[in-house]
Amino acid sequence: MRHGDPRLAACLPGFEAVRRYWDEGESMAIAKILPGEYYVTAQDEQIVTVLGSCVAACIRDRVLCIGGMNHFMLPSITGERLRDERSEIIGSATRYGNYAMEHLINAILGRGGQRKNLEVKVFGGGKLMPALSDVGERNIRFVTDYLAIERMPVLASDLGDIYPRKVVFYPASGRVRVKKLKDVPATTVLGRELKYRDAIQDVEVQGEVDLF
């Protein structure tokens, strides 16, 4: 369906670029996010993504029923940058992960959510091809460490394994559906993620993000 479908209520400001469409079977709007994107809604709609090595965090305020999902991968750090041994270089990948998580959290808190009411569920981090370095494991370690440091308990997770996943999040209820795509070639998902990883390789995150 086109972006201008009259059945689609306006999205929250700042999320106009995210692809949304009306699903006849579900009778609701669906927002589909790609690597590097996130989406927050106060409506009864779905947020959908497909994960390989990337990780998605589904976060909602259980009182206001405002929630969202991100889809991110830590950029790799080249050997040359590691040999530099400066903390700001070595920490750039972690800063990128912080950026992805904090923007999602801030978008919820900035619309009235409260940290004490946040629920978190995390998914992804698969190792789709044995020959590749375990990017998925690095993403899993980051998101679990981040949530532990921020004292945000994880209500549910499905992490690791060797299959791509389709994740469907219903922020209004907090429900998440996960399907492991065993019949989908890993290269289909992996190619998109590797393209994304190459695009963010060694790119510094600009500015700081403060939590409310």
From TrEMBL:
Pfam families: CheD (PF03975). NCBIfam families: PRK13487.1. The keyword Hydrolase applies. One of its GO terms (molecular function) is protein-glutamine glutaminase activity. Gene3D superfamilies: 3.30.1330.200. Probably deamidates glutamine residues to glutamate on methyl-accepting chemotaxis receptors (MCPs), playing an important role in chemotaxis. Coiled coil: none annotated. This is Probable chemoreceptor glutamine deamidase CheD. Belongs to the CheD family. Its EC number is 3.5.1.44. It catalyses: L-glutaminyl-[protein] + H2O = L-glutamyl-[protein] + NH4(+). Keywords: Chemotaxis, Hydrolase. It is an enzyme of class 3 (hydrolase). The gene is cheD. One of its GO terms (biological process) is chemotaxis. It comes from Methylomagnum ishizawai. InterPro entries: CheD-like_sf (IPR038592), Chemorcpt_Glu_NH3ase_CheD (IPR005659), Cytotoxic_necrot_fac-like_cat (IPR011324).
